[in-house]
Amino acid sequence: MRLKNIIINILKNEVVPAMGCTEPVAVAFACAKSKQVLEDESIRKIQVLVSPNIYKNGLGVGIPNTEEVGLSISAALGISIGNSNKGLELLEDVDENIVLKAHKILKEIPFKLDIKDTDKKIYIEVNIEGKNNNVHLIIENRHNNIVYIEKNNNVIVSKESNDENKDNTEISFLINKKIQDIVKTIEEIDKEDLLFLLDGMNMNKKMAQKGLEKKVGIGVGYRTKKLIDKNVLSNDLLNNSMMITAAGADARMSGVNLPVMSSNGSGNNGLTAILPIVAFNQKYPQTNDKLVKALAISHVINCYIKSYIGRLSALCGCAVAAGTGASAAITWLMGGSHKQIDGAIKNMIANISGMICDGAKPSCALKVSTSASVAVQSALLAINENITFDRNGIIEDSAEKTIKNLGILSNEGMYNMDQSILGIMGNMN
């Protein structure tokens, strides 16, 4: 019973809508909340400090309802909106007047965006100096998790990461269970408790449709569809999974004005965890009961893996976490045994465990395209008993041990990777 309740809690907390790329949105959210606390007085100075991972993921991605990219404009948009009540969907309110106001803020008010020296993957600090009041706000560990607010040296919020501790307790309980026990428990959950996951599926399908209708970004999904229509590529499950998932990322990374359902703090993880299952359902229609449980398996395994590699990491979470969740779910939909589900996970990690994350940007569509196609391939291989041998590279005799090894690779083996990536990006003209 406890595992069932924890799985449902994790799904409700981690599978949430987001408008735009999660890192710029989180900065906009933090700044909007800061302005809300400051109230309607004039601003004299703004400082925004972010973790290296937030900085890396916010530099090159399109902002919804604008033709802008980056964290500075996101911060200014948040202050212009001045209301955080819509959470990570606040950018749906952006219009031409708000954009003009944001540019005026960046032009007329001293503004500084910098990298915080912190080991935390998710960290956003906002300091606003007004005419009569000052506000200091911190987000940590989750993109919408405000842990501290101070106004004029008076502490308004000081959660001291209590929510994080609760989350960590639930995640610790989850990852101490075997994946087969997690899947068995999801199989026993009432469909009604998981129906909300269909909202996320429909939301992400709409985003993917935008990427199929016309070329946005670099047009990975759009061009794949054209090649399928011309019979250059076959109209099969693998190519459709690749096409629809890439189209979702094409549209989202270009700033299309639609929300997506995120997974474990990432919109692209949400696309990758959900859309290969959509492709499978389009080819082989499933009941809602099967669909919601497959979506639950995908999201929970994504969360399970990211608890080892980090919400933001040097590894591409879409590939090694969300893609692996989708592969396990597709294997389950095909009637795979628990051994075969484990095999799909091991096949995924044996294949694309080295894919790096060099920030959120339009070319993420290529990475999620690869992730989606490998998810299908790994499932098809596993269901036919073609599974990576044990003790091959980082692959162990169980999915759980293999995922632990992936965590070591991410956190120890690639410790300096983000700094190297930021150095390369900073040296580009």
TrEMBL record:
Domain Serine dehydratase-like alpha subunit: 87-422
Origin: domain of life: Bacteria
InterPro entries with a match to the protein in the record: Ser_deHydtase-like_asu, UPF0597
GO molecular function: L-cysteine desulfhydrase activity
One example of a Gene Ontology biological process annotation: L-cysteine catabolic process to pyruvate
Coiled coil: none
Pfam families in the cross-refs: SDH_alpha
HAMAP family registered for this protein in UniProt: UPF0597
Similarity-based family: Belongs to the UPF0597 family.
Name the UniProt record assigns to this protein: UPF0597 protein D3Z33_05995
Species of origin: Senegalia massiliensis
